[in-house]
Amino acid sequence: MQSLPIPCPAHLIPYATGTNAFHDAYRNAMAHNAVFVAIESEGQRWTVKADTLTAGSGHTVADAVNDAIRAAITRLVHNREADFGAHTGPVYFMMHGLRNEERARELAAALHAALYGDLEPLARAVPPGP
């Protein structure tokens, strides 16, 4: 497997449902010192997972970026687009209960870009509230 491009287009986000698929995607991210991101299906709902530990100790995420990610995930939960109990970082991120694969991929790609410092895709995917 190759490393994901940065930013990663939504259609390239790994599908990691099942233990083997998850471990393969996670190990691939570790092997490339890259942020792990993937989607998983949970019946009719979808989950987005991301982890910065795989990128190694040299990868840092600014506090302002973590704040923006946390706020976006909180808006998704508040709007009932993601289930309560989402993980909002600063190292591990998870949103579950998403309505479809397309939206899960969009959010995963936006989260991946944000974890590399590009907040624009996240702002488009989860616009700030009033």
Structural account:
The chain is of the alpha+beta class. The protein contains four helices and four strands, in the order αββαββαα. The chain has helices at 19-31, 63-78, 101-114, 120-125, and strands at 36-42, 45-51, 87-88, 92-98. It has a four-stranded antiparallel beta sheet with strand order 1-2-4-3. A hairpin with a 3-residue loop joins strand 3 (87-88) and strand 4 (92-98). The termini are far apart. The mean pLDDT is 95.
Beta fraction: 15-25%
How do the helices and strands follow one another from N- to C-terminus? HEEHEEHH
Distance between the termini: 42 Å
The residue fraction in helices comes out at 25-40%
Kindly report the average pLDDT value. Answer: 95
Strand order of the largest sheet: 1-2-4-3
Shape annotation: globular
Radius of gyration, taken over Cα atoms and rounded to an integer in Å: 13 Å
- How many DSSP helices? 4
Task: Pick out the low-confidence regions.
Answer: none
Q: How many strands?
A: 4
Largest sheet: 4 strands, antiparallel
Defining key terms:
130 residues; alpha+beta; 4 strands
